[in-house]
């Protein structure tokens, strides 16, 4: 419920008391907050405007989806209401609160989001090396090619796995000569042909 001016005044007041350990929590004060009202983009805005401070998210939605998603907007900590009994109807807070098992579930899911974020650029990943071999294709022999044979287009096909010459070299190997016997339907390697 605070404006930027309110936030600045609060920060100044806290720091004037000698406390530099401040976390700014984005929060929508609605019980429960509908997911469409959570306004998680505000976490990014707070992070840019108050980049000297930790930005968190105080959640009033039902369930775990919105607080989990808040970490992808930059929330470094999450506040969620706690209850021993989520079925109590006397308080509007109980519907949006988590019990012990709910908190354990949220923490476990948060750990997964932490490790799944990765980096902001694409590298080759070791975990993909084997998959690449079988997901991509290479140039293969469509028939048996004897040593000394000049390779023509009709002798070639493109198939999985990617353990031979990549398809982008298809036109370049036409006209090369087999320097060893190549069996039918096998990936052709550069060492099988004259360059």
CATH class of the largest domain: Alpha Beta
Shape: elongated
Query: What is the percentage of strand-forming residues?
Result: 5-15%
Quick one: biggest sheet? 3 strands, parallel
With strands numbered from the N-terminus, the spatial order across the biggest sheet is: 1-2-3
Which H/E pattern describes the elements? HEHEHEHHEEH
Q: How many E-type strands?
A: 5
Helix residue percentage: 25-40%
Any key phrases for this structure?
29% helix; alpha/beta; 195 residues; 5 strands; 2 domains; TIM Barrel
How would you characterize this protein structure?
- By secondary structure, the chain is an alpha/beta fold.
- The chain folds into two domains: 4-116, TIM Barrel (Alpha-Beta Barrel), CATH 3.20.20; 128-192, Alpha-Beta Complex (Type Iii Antifreeze Protein Isoform Hplc 12).
- The protein is 29% helix and 11% strand.
- The protein is built from six helices and five strands; from the N terminus they run H-E-H-E-H-E-H-H-E-E-H.
- Strands 1-2-3 form a three-stranded parallel sheet.
- The longest helix has 17 residues, at 100-116.
- The model has no long low-confidence stretch (mean pLDDT 92).
